[in-house]
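User: Can you recover a sequence for this backbone? Please restate the input before giving your answer.

Assistant: Of course. Working from this structure:
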């Protein structure tokens, strides 16, 4: 089992920044790919960014604005969000998956999920 706890969400004006954190406990953190997803009201959960030991990637909608990273010593993953837009509003979820093959953006490939943290960007 892996437990994930997100923090760092909040209300910010358009153009501002936030950094989300995802603290992991339980099984060996380094064995898992980590990812961030988000879900806006009335919409499906969507991939934002993912990372594994040899690199990561971000969705086209946030490329150049969001950066994912992880600290193995602290068992924590981060999502640095800059130049936020109102359309970035939603609940942000951290996920962990023991994934064979390429880093994936599919929700079904991630076995563990946090409770989510709300991000609201005002215009």
């Amino acid at each position: 089992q892996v437990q994930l706890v997100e923090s760092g969400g909040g209300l910010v004006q358009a153009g501002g920044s936030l950094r989300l954190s995802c603290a992991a406990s339980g099984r060996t953190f380094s064995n898992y790919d980590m990812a961030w997803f988000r879900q806006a009201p009335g919409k499906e959960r969507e991939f934002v960014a993912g990372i594994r030991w040899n690199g990561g990637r971000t969705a086209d909608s946030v490329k150049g604005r969001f950066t994912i990273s992880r600290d193995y010593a602290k068992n924590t993953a981060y999502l640095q969000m800059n130049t936020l837009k109102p359309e970035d509003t939603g609940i942000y979820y951290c996920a962990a998956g023991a994934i064979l093959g390429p880093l994936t953006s599919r929700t079904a490939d991630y076995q563990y999920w946090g409770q989510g943290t709300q991000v609201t960007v005002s215009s």
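That completes the design. The chain has no helices and eleven strands.
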